[in-house]
């Protein structure tokens, strides 16, 4: 299988004057929208990732499901390598 990738970085400020200010205003407007369900706030791109990063910081690591942890340790056992150690509490 052949796989190709191309990454292009574009600075929108080069094409649209005031882009940063307009984007900041749009983000503010999105955040000010009253959600239909208070338990599900309006999110913008990056919000879920920031929330997960905050959780990882609070926990002192990345939370894994028990199934993922068990599968990883089953593979480690088959390969004869040290299994994962869980941080609890």
From TrEMBL:
Gene3D superfamilies found in the cross-reference section: Hypothetical oxidoreductase yiak, domain 2 (3.30.1370.60)
GO terms, molecular function: oxidoreductase activity
InterPro entries: Mal/L-sulf/L-lact_DH-like_NADP, Mal/L-sulfo/L-lacto_DH-like_sf, Malate/L-lactate_DH-like
Keyword terms: Oxidoreductase
PANTHER family per UniProt: MALATE DEHYDROGENASE, OXIDOREDUCTASE-RELATED
Protein family membership: Belongs to the LDH2/MDH2 oxidoreductase family.
Protein name: Malate dehydrogenase
Organism: Magallana gigas (Pacific oyster)
């Amino acid at each position: 299988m052949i796989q190709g990738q191309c990454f292009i970085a574009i600075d929108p400020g080069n094409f649209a004057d005031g882009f940063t200010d307009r984007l900041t205003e749009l983000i503010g407007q999105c955040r000010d929208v009253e959600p239909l369900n208070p338990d599900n706030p309006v999110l913008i791109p990056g919000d879920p990732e920031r929330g997960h990063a905050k959780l990882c910081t609070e926990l002192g690591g990345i939370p894994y499901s028990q199934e993922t942890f068990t599968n990883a340790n089953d593979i480690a056992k088959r390969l004869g390598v040290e299994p994962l150690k869980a941080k609890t509490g």
